[in-house]
TrEMBL record:
Annotated InterPro entries: DUF624 (IPR006938)
Pfam families from the UniProt entry: DUF624
Transmembrane helix in keyword set: yes
Transmembrane domains' residue ranges: 66-88, 114-133, 145-169, 181-204, 210-230
Superkingdom of the organism of origin: Bacteria
Annotated signal peptide: none
Name used for this protein in its record: DUF624 domain-containing protein
Length: 246
């Protein structure tokens, strides 16, 4: 029902463009080229709203599926396979598969990668917990060594956060060994300063949008960040492949 309501706005502009004729709306004073431009404008608006309605519906649908599959795994075991499957779906959209059904492919990917995604995800979580524990210990002491250690740990945590983000797009884009899935996101983080900035800007914008419109929380908080990180990562992969080809 929601999808039909969204599409209706797109069709509205198309109908209005058909109704515009030289004999109506006082347009007789204008030439035929002016009228055609007006009709073309309404047609473009109609196409824009139709396309926008499709994207809104897809985003909401995927986010609800993501939340449902997190719960399906009891949250603890559902979080990482659900997130990997969400990234796989956004990758499919970016490679031209926007019209393909979501649920069937999503659930298949969820089942096939359930244990591997959990293994990778919880290893990364353990590493983050270790860094935070070290940071907590360092803050309990004073002196120059403590200050240097704190700055170093904060830097490592920053690299860790971006590496954790890049784990998911790397996992769904490349077929690698378990070891490479653990290592390569860190390497990509270190050599991709511009990508890190773009990802940070996009996530801040999404966070600001959700903060200002909390009603969006059930519908977009997972998919929009995933789509942005996936898009930026795929562009970076292309750059890296071009560099290696030369």
């Amino acid at each position: 029902m929601l999808r039909s309501h969204l599409r209706r706005y797109g069709h509205l502009f198309h109908y209005v463009s058909i109704l515009i004729r030289p004999s109506c709306l006082g347009l007789r004073m204008y030439g035929s080229s002016d009228i055609e431009r007006v009709r073309d404008m309404f047609n473009r608006l109609g196409s824009f709203f139709t396309e926008a309605s499709l994207w809104i519906w897809k985003i909401m649908q995927l986010n609800l599926i993501w939340l449902a599959h997190i719960l399906l795994g009891g949250v603890i075991l559902g979080l990482f396979p659900a997130t990997v499957s969400m990234f796989a779906t956004t990758r499919k959209w970016l490679t031209g598969g926007l019209d393909s059904p979501i649920l069937k492919d999503y659930h298949r990917y969820y089942r096939e990668n359930f244990w591997k995604a959990n293994g990778l995800g919880w290893i990364y979580v353990s590493l983050g917990a270790f860094l935070l524990f070290d940071l907590h210990l360092v803050t309990q002491i004073t002196g120059m060594i403590a200050l240097v250690s704190t700055m170093l740990l904060l830097f490592l945590l920053l690299i860790y956060v971006f590496s954790f983000l890049y784990l998911f797009p790397y996992y769904v884009h490349f077929s690698q060994s378990f070891k490479q899935y653990l290592i390569q996101p860190f390497i990509i983080t270190v050599i991709s300063f511009k990508q890190n900035i773009l990802v940070a800007i996009g996530l801040i914008m999404v966070g600001s949008l959700i903060y200002q419109m909390p009603g969006l929380i059930p519908f977009v908080p997972g998919v929009m960040p995933a789509y942005w990180v996936m898009k930026v990562s795929m562009n970076r992969y292309k750059e890296m492949q071009l560099t290696h080809s030369h």
